[in-house]
Amino acid sequence: MSSHTAKTELSFLGKLLIEGDLVCETGLHIGAGKGTLEIGGADNPVVKDAFSRPYVPGSSLRGRLRSLLEQALGLTSPKQLVYVSRRKGQEVRIHGSDDPGDEICLLFGRAPGRVERVEGEALNQATITPARLTVYDAALNLESITAAMRESLDDELTEVKSESAIDRITSQSQARTLERVPAGASFRIRLVLDVLCAEDKELVPVLLEGLSLLEDDSLGGGGSRGSGRVRLANLKLTWRNAAYYKGGAEAELVSAADLAALRGTAADLIQKLEA
Question: Across the strands, what pairs with 23?
Fold first, then answer.
């Protein structure tokens, strides 16, 4: 739990930029929905930009980090979950609280108002907690799709994985196809952590924990069936304090080949976040 209290005053100190590559260890599927089906195409296409290039939406990466951290911090019991949507068959439940030191609410934000808990009395959030973490859409590194890879792909930049669902009574097979970005492809990620008070420095190791959890879990659809294993590489952390935005200089804090190397510098990193 963070040392933030109800009396913590916010004053912009700076921004911590985390940039690097998100590398696909197995095929990655982040779906575009059924509305983009084409004749002869996969049943489940991946999301693409205006130039028909796959990308990782910032909302998908941010939501996965939140989900993994909620689980790791033990914040997924019914009493700790609130409804974002209660539409039948499309319920969405996330963690929410009015605790000023709640690290999830500090990282991802909290809006004021009355929200329904999954179990227990409704939660009346009286204060606004600005989200510290911003996650941008991650563009595909086109050079990561090599000429040798393209020879085996079903499309210019993607592959199609065939799967089957087996009925347990009749043994009938129901075929389906899943479009994926192939293993070996990479995306350029950019995360920005706003530091609005000295206590916000405590959120750095929490964010690094979420990224580490992601490497040992999955991103996108089909994770339990082998898709979506990723790792982070070529990481760079840059600190831009308030003076930077008035014409000052930024400070490159650390460059790391992988996340393990970056996490090893976390303690020193926090000390370098000076206003």
Answer: 186, 231
Q: List CB contacts of 93: < 8 A, sequence separation 6 or more.
A: 81, 82, 83, 84, 118
239 near 40, Cβ under 8 Å? no
Determine the 3-state secondary structure of 201 from DSSP.
helix
H-helix segments, the chain: 58-72, 103-108, 147-150, 203-215, 259-263, 266-271
Q: To 10 degrees, what angle do helices 58-72 and 203-215 make?
A: 100
What mean pLDDT is predicted for residues 241-269? Answer: 90
75 pLDDT above the threshold of 90: yes
Residue 40: band (very low, low, confident or very high) from pLDDT cuts 50, 70, 90: very low
The amino acid sitting at 235 is L
Task: Check whether 86 has a pLDDT greater than 90.
Answer: no
Query: What is the rounded CA–CA span in Å between residue 43 and residue 36?
Result: 10
Highest average pLDDT, of 116-120, 153-157, 205-209, comes from 205-209
Residue 246 has phi, psi (to 5 degrees) of -110, 15
CB 193 within 8 A of CB 132: yes
What is the biggest distance separating any 2 CA atoms in the chain, rounded to whole angstroms?
Answer: 70
Contacts of 228 (CB under 8 A, 6+ apart): 26, 27, 28, 29, 218, 219, 220, 221, 222
